[in-house]
Amino acid sequence: MSAYYDLLEKPDIRQTGEQQPLYARFIPKGTIERKEFLNRVHLFTGISRSLLEGAMASFMDELRDCLADGWTVEFGELGYFTPSLNCRREVMEKKELRAASVTLRGLNFRLGKEFYKELNKKMRLERHPQSSSKSESSTPLLSVEQRFRLLDEYLQQEQPCINRAQYARLTGRSVKQAVTDLNLFIEDGLLIRCGAGKNVVYMKGMQK
Which of helix, strand or coil describes residue 138? Predict the structure, then answer.
């Protein structure tokens, strides 16, 4: 069994017009939902589904409570979970911001070394059979959630902002579709718009 990848051209951030190097992107075969995952563990271990269901609920409850109490949590060999925070408004001095203006943004995850080694050992990568011959984009059918995940990864790892053309290249959307997506993300509080006219860029906003 293999895991699929595709090779895509990096966005031309500096707008040089030159061909950009390729990068590898994981192409999921789908999503294994909670019920199917528990069934797989049940078939492999023989542990009853009800017991697995209860154990998973207990793990999640304890994980949530420990994180809420201010701890970083090591989740077995999988890795470490740590809360990430967000300020409701920009300030320059610490005294200008009170605790009520600091909110939970999400969770940071750091993969455990042993889990990484085992995963890397077992994973067999193969070019996706429906991969495009060109390096443009193989993801025109991505869901809006998948498109936002790509955008979120880009803003965290590449640049703090993105324009319409860059988003279109990143997700395989037309510029018109890109504007629709970006406006939707703004309405949901996920992005903010900065600048005007051709100089408009989009940055991460505060999640509702």
Answer: coil
